[in-house]
Amino acid sequence: MSIFDQTKEKKVLSPQTFAHVVLRTNDIKPLRDFYVSFLGGRIAHENEFAAFITYDQEHHRIALLEVPNTKPRANTSCGLEHIAYSFSTLTDLLLAYRQRRSIGIEPFWCVNHGPTTSIYYKDPDGNAIETQVDNFATAEEADVFMKSKYFEENAIGVDFDPEEMIRRIEQGEKEDDLKKRTVKLKHVDGNTEHESWVGLTGLKPNRGDGQVQKPRTP
């Protein structure tokens, strides 16, 4: 039997990796310059209507196409919500944040989702970009958390201040501790009810109220 006759499997063969994203635009040059700067990347190839950008061993990670009469992005339309890029450490995530700030690229949302600590940006066309670091050492641990009642109660996360995070790292706090999201639990001591923060997998909310967040849009 040929390997190509194996069509009765319940599960389709998964890809080896996610290769690239292609965005269309009505003004390619600002978008090209943004992504080269944002990703610390380089142009693999470009012409008057297309640009192929990479930042690693892949021939391109993002491609841009200038298409005439393309309309501006509408937040109310269906389609792609955001692109996400991962860093290996919290320090790297925050260093890239600082480097982007130095060239005028500011985030619009900084949030600890639980599975990840994430910083969101938008490109010149309004497309959202997430930069993140995993909060768990393994995918299995993240999977357990995502099936927990804590994630069910707040699957969006809690906001954090990246400058405060940098200050705490510089003072010697461990990354694993900074990535621990906390939840407010009620407990009774005698006849008195108290509220306390219990570390799980994210940060103590900088707002101090622990309220469930709604996703932010560019």
TrEMBL record:
Which Pfam families does this UniProt record tie to the protein? Glyoxalase
Region annotation (Disordered) maps to 196-218
Q: Which domain of life is it from?
A: Eukaryota
Q: Which Gene3D superfamilies match?
A: 2,3-Dihydroxybiphenyl 1,2-Dioxygenase, domain 1
The protein in question is named: VOC domain-containing protein
- Residue ranges annotated for the VOC domain, each copy included: 17-134
